Hints:
The chain has helices spanning 21-24, 31-40, 44-51, 56-63, 71-79, 90-101, 117-123, 136-139, 146-156, 170-178, 189-200, and strands at residues 6-9, 16-18, 85-88, 105-110, 132-135, 163-167, 182-185. By secondary structure, it is of the alpha/beta class.
Amino acid sequence: MATIENIIFDFGGVLVDWNPRYLYRDYFRNEREMEFFLENVCTWEWNSELDRGRTFDEGIRLLLPQYPQYAEAIRLYRDGWEKMLGGEIKSSVELLKTLKGAGYGVYGLTNWSAETFPIAYGKYDFFRLFDGIVVSGEEKVAKPDPKIFEILLERYHLKAENCIFMDDSAANVAAAEALGFNAILFDNVDNVKSRIAALTGNEL
Length: 204
């Protein structure tokens, strides 16, 4: 088995608690209307296009003619975006610090808009611990597309077999495994620690 030298983290749902409901619960009159908006207007698929490099201006421009009654709420997705950040996930940040302190290279591979990632980067100090970060919105390609994994490997001169990749998306984990990464589905920190220990031979 190859020696593990590097640990690659996803960000949203792993290190950062992000959810548009944190913003829209204060905006909509009731939960049902909020869920309708997020399921039919500013949807997960629409947000994923922002992660793939579409600008907020373009994304908003596409929605306004279809849902003029939600014009204010649609614009709020950009103007109030910072309120979608629920904070750092402390147990995961502690794991990051432990791995960094143990001498592993630590890298980030995230599906995130190029326009909003700088907001989060400026808000949370733990981002400075990373040896390198690849942001989908900057590259115009997102997980689980193999291309973004290849960008990470080439840019930082890494080998997949020497890396552990962790993500809360099963599709992203499967894509990483297909490329030769030691991939872990991030469900909770204790399980992840056990998997890392099994792969590295070192208890955390």
